[in-house]
Every structure is written in structure tokens, then in C-alpha cells.
Amino acid sequence: MNELLITPYLQSLFTMFYQYLIDDDEEVRTNACFGMGVLCAIANQQLLSQYETILNRLSHVLIKETNIRMIDNICSCLCRMIVVSSKHVPLEQVLPVLFQHLPIHEDFAEANSIFTCLNLLYEQHFTQIEPYLPKCIEMAASIIDDERILPDAVPIIREFLRSIYIKHSVAFVQVMQTLNEPLRVIVTKHLQIT
Q1: Residue 106: what are its φ and ψ, rounded to 5°?
Q2: Which terminal CB of the chain, N or C, has fewer other CB atoms within 10 Å?
Q3: What is the DSSP annotation of the chain?
Q4: pLDDT in tens for each of the 194 residues of the chain?
Q5: Measured between alpha carbons, how far is 56 from 40 in angstroms, rounded to an integer?
Q6: What is the pTM of this model?
Q7: How many CB atoms neighbour CB 172 within 10 A?
Q8: Rounded Cα gap, residues 97 and 189, in angstroms
Q9: For residues 113 and 76, what is the distance between their CA atoms, to the nearest angstrom?
Q10: Is the N-terminal amide bond of 103 cis, ω within 30° of 0?
């Protein structure tokens, strides 16, 4: 969707999603969170001034949230915001919280946005994502063949694994040695490595 098409509706959509992030109904909260993430992605730079407000609300919600699907959607919303503008997201504060709640557990359609974000972080903010590489590789290995993810997520996850394998092979091999045999087989298959 073109960001110009959404401009006339941006403020009303933002206000609606923002308000419903704290609704009593789990389904409403989850849909509002998904909507907020997609709105941030489509609006591109137009919502940057609201990022701090969004992050504060998501942080408040996450503290007491028990709905697994909502937590998956919060992770995805954060990832979409990072992809739009990582400099408008305080990565040193957000990444520990994000990785505390990953991997996704229920809403596997969010794998695409999460691994798009991880690719970006790996390429542009390596020092900040480096401590999480073992978890990233394990997450990728455990989800890449899962039939619950959308097919368009597979190449994104595969590219993420390949980038780490090519650019940081020593760390990659060390993590591979910690994975169980089925996960090692999956990664090897997708990377076509021996």
C-alpha cells in the first residue's frame, strides 16, 4: 500500500490502534497491536514523532500481558518500527526486552517481520545484536521448516542464516555445535553446508 493513500486516515487510525492497545478484550488488543505495527510500516516516516508514545504504551502493555499472541504481535510491532527507523527506537533498551519475548510462539505469520528486522539489525547494528546471535540462529533453525510460517518468510530466514554463516563463520559454527541434531540438519539443508 502506498503511504500517500493512508495519509488522510493516519491520525484517526493511529488514535484508534493506540487506544485499543489497552482494551479489556484480548482479540481487540491483539488486532490493535498488529494494526499499529502495520500502520508504522506503511506510514513509513510519518509516524516517527509518535514512536516514543507507541513504545511507552507497548512497554506498559507488555508488563502485564499474558496473551501469547499479543506478545508475538508486540514483538512484531517493535520489529516493524525498527525496520522503518532504527535510530528512532532505543535499541539498547528495546532489544533485551524483544529477545526476552522471542521466539514467537503462536502468531507465526509474524516471522516475516521479525526476521526482516533481524536481518537489518545484523547488517546495520551488528554490535548490538551480536550477544543475541546464538538465540537468533536457534530461532531461525527452529522455525524455518515450520509449516505455520508464511512461505515468503523462508527466504528471509535463509538469508539471515547465510549472512551470519558467511560473515561470522566462527561464531556460527560455535552456535551450530550447541544445537541438537535435528536443528543442525535443518540449518545445513537450508545453507547447503557440510
Answers
A1: -135, -45
A2: C
A3: --HHHHGGGHHHHHHHHHHHTT-SSHHHHHHHHHHHHHHHHHHGGGGGGGHHHHHHHHHHHHHH---HHHHHHHHHHHHHHHHH-GGGS-HHHHHHHHHHHPSPSS-GGGHHHHHHHHHHHHHH-HHHHGGGHHHHHHHHHHHTT-TTS-TTHHHHHHHHHHHHHHHSHHHHHHHHHHS-HHHHHHHHHHHT--
A4: 566 778 889 999 999 999 999 999 999 999 999 999 999 999 999 999 999 999 999 999 999 999 999 999 999 999 999 999 999 999 999 999 999 999 999 999 999 999 999 999 999 999 999 999 999 999 999 999 999 999 999 999 999 999 999 999 998 999 999 999 999 999 999 998 54
A5: 15
A6: 0.93
A7: 22
A8: 31
A9: 6
A10: yes
Cα–Cα distance, 131 to 14 (Å, whole number): 34
Q: Length of the chain, please?
A: 194
Please report where in the chains the cell 553446508 appears, as a residue: 193
